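Lab notebook page, bench 4
Experiment: in silico fold of construct C2
Operator: M.H.
Input chain length: 348 residues
Purpose: comparison with the prior construct
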Amino acid sequence: MQEKPIDARAEEILKKVIVNYILTGEPVGSRTIAKLSREGLSPASIRNVMADLEEMGFLAQPHTSAGRVPTDKGYRYYVDGLLDPFRLAPRDRALIDESLSRVASEFGEAIEIIPKLLSRLSSQVGYVITPPIRDAVLKHIEFVRLHERRVLCVFVDRSGVVSHRIIEVGEEYAQADLDRAGRYLVEEFAGLVLGEIRSRLVALMAQEKAAFDVLLRNAINLGTLYLNAEQDERRLVLEGTANIMKHPEFADMDTMRRLFETFEEKHHLVKLLDRCLDASGVRVVIGSETDDPALGSLALVASPYQVDQRSAGVVGLLGPTRMEYQRAVALVDYISRLLSSLLTSPPH
């Protein structure tokens, strides 16, 4: 947590400006704060404090005659030190519990439901990032001949997530050979993470048997091609992008276009959100802190979730910097904890 360079009165005024601006979207004037002040401060006294806050970079004044609005620095100070404890309403917790209890440990269903839940309960954009494929545990794999030297690989991990990848192969395979290779990989490696399977396939390549056993050679070639293509691949599921259009901050068509281009190029978002994997608990990234001009008007609320007590992916919300941070943090925290609990196998 950052140092607090402002006194309690200035903190109170900053907090009231931010809360009021979040609610209304309109610049906040000293008279509005005076009506809310517990100390009975005059508008003139409040104007002086607001001017000091502006000078320190916590507030900005869009127009000379207008009130103030929070800056990214102001929001950061508010999120780090001024948020009041917030507890989700029982009906919200009940909806989340019921929705996720239906999918139990079926991660494939969970990653479709969770972004919808987050979006619905916050009116923002909900998202989930899946674990890297190299960390997935093999349940089933099969290969389907397409044409010439292209093969479709269908991979199912232990959590039920299905991945598809078309791979270019160096020779033509009959479908029967592809079926046998898939069965061999499942029989030999089911229950192992893909990173370990890849290491074992590389070791098998060096064995003399691999040069003469057609089944083994095919399995090694196909498995290695798939794993080389997929090992760092991650899936980002977004829901509620239309919610962004409801906010006046994004009424400008150029801003909207850049934002939706970023949503389409999901690898940029994945790279940014991956930073949150090493964090413990909920992390909030505000505006310019994203280092991406297209996301400069957005805030990201993110929390890692765990699979078998290892950090795996990220769940969270995207919305304007003028978002209801208390509720957003509470929602993301609750859902990430519940998801981690569902995806953690009980000890044997």
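Observations: Residues 90-131+234-342 form a domain with the Beta-Lactamase fold (CATH 3.30.450.40). The first helix runs from residue 8 to 24.
Next step: discuss at group meeting.
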